[in-house]
Amino acid sequence: MKRIEFLRSPMDIASMSGTVKFIETKIDKGEFLQHVVVNVAKIVNMQKDAQLADSVNACDVINIDGMGVVFGARFLGHDVPERVAGVDLFHELLKMSARRDFPVFLLGATEDVVTKTTEKVQMLYPNLKVVGFNDGYFWDDEEAVVNKIRQSGAKLLFVAITSPKKENFINKWQDKLGVDFVMGVGGTFDVVAGKVKRAPIWMQNAGLEWFYRVLQEPGRMWKRYLVTNSKFAFLLLKEKFFTK
């Protein structure tokens, strides 16, 4: 695992298998590990959101999630062989947890979605021990949810809340969660529960997942991606041609 800096954000160049093995080893040693993935939107938002940047920078493992970041890093001369997509890593870590009998806790999304996600992952991985779950609408009493997680005995915590809330929540409460590993998984629960469809593999590999999301929700997504992608392209060109 090699750490680089890209557009003022640290990130780790690693394979999926290497990432899972690294996390498993840390859990075996009882060493707390905070994980995050970065995509185009997060890179752009980190430029002006100091709290988000601090929360990401505090993480022990920072995987590259989006192909846009892979292509951008290559454009600036970094050797990035692959991405480690958050939804794929989520499943690989659940497989590992089922094999190793590591208890997990699922936090985030709506009550209906997190319930369906729990049911789905237990069907996919029969030996998986889900010791608790909670929806992501708990901001009036964060400490109660933190206590619930700690008392569950979970070793791995997956947080499906939008950015930057999830990064800041994890960074704020990491010492009181009582888990060995915590990962923000964004909209992964929506995908697992079947609420949102994931882009076809060819679109994922071509870096067109954002376009697939626009096709699914044009009214909500087109402006967000137009602005974010334009800002990202500007940052790349500025770094390539105008930064010494």
What tags apply to this protein structure?
8 strands; globular; 12 helices; 52% helix
Can you describe this structure?
The structure is a single chain. The chain is of the alpha/beta class and 244 residues long. Helix content is 52%, strand content 16%. It is built from twelve helices and eight strands. α8 links the parallel β7 and β8. α3 crosses α8 and α11 runs antiparallel to α12. The longest helix is centred in the C-terminal third of the chain and has 24 residues. The model has no long low-confidence stretch (mean pLDDT 93).
Helices, strands, pairings?
Layout: E1 2-6, E2 9-13, H1 16-28, E3 33-38, H2 40-46, H3 50-57, E4 61-64, H4 67-75, H5 86-100, E5 104-108, H6 111-124, E6 130-134, H7 142-152, E7 156-160, H8 165-173, E8 181-184, H9 188-192, H10 201-205, H11 209-216, H12 218-241
Parallel strand pairs: 3-4, 3-8, 5-6, 5-7, 7-8
Antiparallel strand pairs: 1-2
Helix pairs in contact: 1-5, 2-12, 3-8, 11-12
Give the amount of beta strand, in percent. 15-25%
Radius of gyration: 18 Å
Low-confidence runs (pLDDT<50, min 5 residues)? none
Helix content: 40-55%
Give the SSE string. Answer: EEHEHHEHHEHEHEHEHHHH
* Count of individual beta strands: 8
Q: What general outline do the C-alpha atoms trace?
A: globular
- Profile the largest sheet: 6 strands, parallel
Classify the secondary structure makeup into a structural class. alpha/beta
Question: What spatial order of strands do you see in the largest sheet?
Answer: 4-3-8-7-5-6
Number of helices: 12
Mean pLDDT: 93
Distance from N terminus to C terminus (CA atoms, Å) equals 27 Å
